[in-house]
Amino acid sequence: MSLGLAASTVANPALAIAFNDYKLNADIELTQAVISANILPQPGKELIAVGVNDSYQRYLMVYGYQGNKLVELDRMLLTNDLLRYDVYQAENDPQAHPSSKNKQQKLFFTTADSLYQYVPRSDAFSSQLDTSSQLEKVADISSITVTDNADYIARGRFAYDINRDGYGDVFLSDFTQSHLLLAQEDGSLQKQSVPLKPIVEVTRSGAEYSRPEVFSADMNFDARPDLVRVGEGMLEVYHQLDDGSFDSVANFVAVSQPISGINWWNKRDAYGRQLDQSDLLYRKVEQIKDINGDGITDLVVRYTKSSGVFDRSNDYEVYLGSKQLVGETQQASINFGREAATVIRADGTLTGLRFSDLDNDKIDEVVVSGFDIGVSQIIGALLSGSIDQDVYVFKMDANSKFPKKANESEQVELNFSLTSGQSGEPIVALADINGDGFKELLLSDSDDTLKIFVGQSGSQPFSRKSHQLNFTLPTEGSMLSVSDVNGDGRDDLLVQYGRQDDKALQRQIHLFIADD
């Protein structure tokens, strides 16, 4: 059995923010990131974990926050033919339908040919365990994953609200097309196929297939999000219909710039090699969404310029969408200008771009990281085992322009080990911890200190002085996630540990809830 413990309040006593740390020691090794989602009919969200026991049997574990502690609500043995799992997390979706925030969502699993959903026992929300929970087959599927005995099970990222009706849908791909399983109000799934082919990378021994990256955005001004895939120099669009399904025939939107939907390092030249970095200009679409809050879809492009391995930079260009009427019927269509309306630019190579409405004004701010990869920086990193990484925050002005210089910048440290060949990952997260509508900036400061910069209005998005939360930080920053687990309208911090952390920590889950 797992043990739920409520720890003492943790914080710097000189500062205002304090947390209660609720710790759980799992009786399995947690091999995948813990997910917070509403999958049971009880207040708040559940914690979904997947791992293996000492005999390497795979288990699904469901934990909950009850009576001021973390407790085990359910467990289920998973068979080896299960390959992927996923659940729609509305709170992590900036474009989520307002009704989806409080809806109970479905936890899905896939095999090579079937889609299953988790069906909890009727008393799973109590603390009494039995074995009546099950996986129920809900659809036959066709997949690019044809094995029936995978080495591990992982989160698949295939469940999200495709048509923005508040219900989590399923998007899967096979070798020739993609399949949508659209959730209905009665709980059933409506299946539809669209001619979206997988991404194919030809190799000497055959080919590698992966699911196409698809965006959801309104491209024809009917207030319904459409399916959008980025092609070479154009956008492939499948318009949403009145019943929530999608057109089976693509419409194409031309883009003036030579854009792509594939990262440059996955591209191959005529010799089958990676692109030459000594003279590289490349534009890859990162986001298709309304950035400036005018109700029109915009295009965000990563523009990479390289004259060598150690001389590479990339900016993020924003092409604001506009409405145009085409044809005899004067049908509304999206148009993107040839020149970027505004550019996000900073020193070094930029990465980790995220758009988030920090101050609840319906206009997205930008948080992005940057680091130098010159020869001197690499030598210094080899000697110290770490490299400095800057975190920049850009705030759009009233003219839909980002400033030339970031509104705010902070620094974190990226660590790596030459012995193990593994690198860490700093914590860079956003969370509305105090529930005031302004998001806080969370940054790792050392192995045991998390800095919290309080969100505020104005051109300076965060306070200059930080609060501190002291605990053992995970080596991989992605092991810290943000979710309102207890449903009090404030974000909580969910922390676990991975293979690079001490063995004694690898079965621990921490839930930090801000003190009243």
From TrEMBL:
Gene3D superfamilies membership: Integrin alpha, N-terminal
Assigned keywords, A-Z: Signal
Keyword Signal tagged: yes
InterPro entries in the record: FG-GAP, Integrin_alpha_N
Keyword Signal found: yes
Domain of life: Bacteria
Name this polypeptide is given: VCBS repeat-containing protein
Organism: Shewanella maritima
UniProt cross-references to PANTHER family, sorted A to Z: PROPROTEIN CONVERTASE P (PTHR44103:SF1)
